[in-house]
Amino acid sequence: MKTWRMNLFLTLLLIFIVPGMAWASEVPAIDTGDTAFILVASAMVLLMTPGLALFYGGMVRKKNVLGTTMQSIIAMVVISLQWVIIGYTLAFGPDKGGLIGGLDWLGLKDVGLDPNPDYSETIPAQVFMAFQMTFAIITPALISGAVAERMRFPAYIAFIVLWATFIYDPVAHWVWGGGWIGELGALDFAGGTVVHIISGVSALVACLMLGKRKTRSSEPTLPHNIPMVVLGAALLWFGWFGFNGGSALGANGIAAAAFVTTNTAAAAAALGWMIVEWMHHGKPTLLGVVSGAVAGLVAVTPAAGFVTPMAAIIIGLVSGVICYLMIAIVKGKLGYDDSLDVFGIHGVGGTWGAIATGFFATTTVNPDGANGLFYGDPSLVITQIIAVAASYAFAALGTFVILKLVGLVFQLRVSSEEEEAGLDITQHGEDAYRDFAMGSTVVKSGKVAAQAGAIEAKNFN
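Above: the chain's sequence. Below: its structure in token form.
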């Protein structure tokens, strides 16, 4: 009798409990450690955009510091909304012919708190969405450096929304969302093509279409606040650990590898830039060192989770040298006015980093990656070059078309008089250093009312 009861019990257990246990094991389980890590990484990457605002803001003339800063901050505002409404589904929605994501997740429909196993089995889908949103925000903001001091604010807003929708989102899908570049086998760990190449190329096209600053030859265009630039660069360097490390999508060994290669390449590039600048100009500059660090961070971005620390040193050193030479020599010979050298750092650095990934990638670092030229597979270099070329062509043509369309509705650049007065006053009605200017003048003369009135008149005329 006891045997019969035991058999019945085991039968019920097999019928009701074991299948339930098997079913539960098939559902991706949220890992709290991975989730916390990606949430922190998302916040770090989001902080990079205010860091970019300081980095760019310090490099322009003081009459344009607020206008330049505003271009980064407004990207946080409008692209956050664009991403939730339509950007995420275009970039990561169900694939449509390898070219774009479908509209299944419009307005984040069905993007919930359970993992999406297509992208990560250990973090909620909304956390993955938020992490990718921070990339979508900073990428169009990077372009603002090329058109600083001369683009009208309404035209800029229209441009970055359209650019994010029709350039960034498709390329992100091509590489990371199941599109044709990813299927081709190209490697881009954290955005060499998706972020830096397309923003750098678009920046070059934009500055060529807008034309040179009219005051460039008659008025010095040196950075007005180097400490502000350094603070911005420091925030970028800090945030880049979330940018690259977080792209592992988990608190794991690949994230650790990306952390180490990121810092190593930044340091090597800063050193490389400083040495070549020292040889070329006779003195090393603080602006040069932090610019070199950013160039190294750019170059290692596509490679961070695929290469060794020694490879990161080579990638960084070469990046620092070639980006400096592009800005200090080649740019002058070509004569284009990329105000803050977006193409020279992000376009050139991103291109080198993407191709270098084809040389140095190894599955000993990341089994999900591939072996590059120096590890037995030269075909990866060809694949990387194809991805680079496609990104160049699409970004250049798309940016040209978008700016032409925006120009039909909005005036693209400020007038000569507005440029002379500065974008802070003409576009935003603000003066970053008004109180400082008044205080300085008062101390010198003691004529408070007269001096204040003169400054007010100068600022608003």
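The longest strand covers residues 95-96.
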